[in-house]
Amino acid sequence: MITIHEPVMLKEVLRFLDPRPSQNFIDCTFGGGGHSLAILELVKPDGKVIGIDWDRRVVQDSHNSNLILVNDNYRNLKDIVKRVSERHGIDRIDGILLDLGLSSDQLASDDRGFGFSGGELDLRFDASSDLPKAYELLESLSEKEIKDILIEYGEEPLAGAIAKKIVESRKNGQPIRTASDLAELVSAIYRRRFAKPSKRHPATRVFQALRIAVNDEYGNINSVLPKAIDTLSAGARLAVITFHSGEDRIVKNIFKELAKGDTARIKILTKKPIEPSEAEVVKNPRSRSAKLRVVEKI
Ligand SMILES: C[S@@+](CC[C@H](N)C(=O)[O-])C[C@H]1O[C@@H](n2cnc3c(N)ncnc32)[C@H](O)[C@@H]1O
Questions:
Q1: Which of 53, 69, 109 best tests ligand 1's pocket when mutated (most atoms within 8 Å of CB)?
Q2: Probe ligand 1: pick from 50, 54, 215, 242, max atoms within 8 Å of CB?
Q3: Which of 49, 72, 125, 250 to mutate to test the pocket of ligand 1 (most atoms within 8 A of CB)?
């Protein structure tokens, strides 16, 4: 697959996961494969990488016999590992990576509404799932429910005004259907409230909130982290990259819980999350909000 996605904090991830020849790793969010391919180079010739992605388009046939691609939700990690280990004779997992959110390839694709100028407002990672699409949610939820999603998952300061306008458009027979409909509705509200345009697109938080709701992203993260710890061999590490405060809070709290008391299952290796270097942010502005947390299984 041709990718425009630049792996975030690659050097830092490799330093913490420290892949060695013959070890096996799981990349729960394969995306453009940047992290996976760098790990594969270090575990060759016998080590394997299991690359998981919920988006069918990014996990087509692998041309590398040590890269096993799986199209599934990472919250099914245990079943995936069982299935793949049996088939490929993998008897230990030496590290796991989660690089959350959206890839630049998805953002640039026009057909699922991830980009602001795209078509149908779908926002599902798995376009073949029976989860409702984002525009279907906007058609069926109440104004209060929409407002709550925008606050809880996007910390959107104009959540009330935006939810009101979405429901008004629906009542006037002009429901939001496309990403550009929604981006324009939000931009118009921002233009009315603020004279100076912000650096980021004003609809960034709204799109993030809807994507999290549509894909139950917080449910997925809550579900996968304890399973990832169960899956690791003793002394192996789990690295998680998040892109906004809501995600980072969930990861931080689960790690704290799993590291507590006499029954602690992990050791936290990053008391404070690692952030990208200034040079990386200049080269890849998408990395600016990234935070990396790493734990080691006891
Ligand atoms: C930030 S990208 C990963 C980029 C990758 N590390 C790279 O360097 O190219 C996140 C990926 O996670 C996938 N994803 C999101 N939620 C998922 C889930 N619940 N299960 C599996 N994959 C998921 C997305 O489809 C996307 O391709």
A1: 53
A2: 54
A3: 125
d(CA 196, CA 170): 29
- The residue whose CA is least distant from atom 24 of ligand 1 is 102
Tracing tokens 């909000």 back to the chain, one arrives at 289
Atom 2, ligand 1: which residue's CA is nearest? 103
* Strand residues in 57-214 grouped as ranges (E): 67-71, 95-99
Going along the chain from its start, the domains and CATH numbers come out as: 10-105+217-297 (3.40.50.150), 132-215 (1.10.150.170)
Q: Phi and psi for 194 in degrees, rounded to 5?
A: -125, 130
Q: Measured between alpha carbons, how far is 235 from 213 in angstroms, rounded to an integer? A: 35
Q: How far is the CA of 51 from the centre of ligand 1 (A)?
A: 10
| pLDDT one digit per residue (tens) for the chain, 298 residues | 678 989 999 999 999 999 999 999 999 999 999 999 999 999 999 999 999 999 998 887 778 889 999 999 999 999 999 999 999 999 999 999 999 999 988 988 878 899 998 799 999 999 899 999 999 999 999 999 999 999 999 999 999 999 999 999 999 999 999 999 999 999 999 999 988 878 889 999 999 999 999 999 999 999 999 999 999 999 999 999 999 999 999 999 999 999 999 999 999 999 999 999 999 999 999 999 999 999 999 9
Collapsed DSSP state (helix, strand, coil) of residue 34: helix
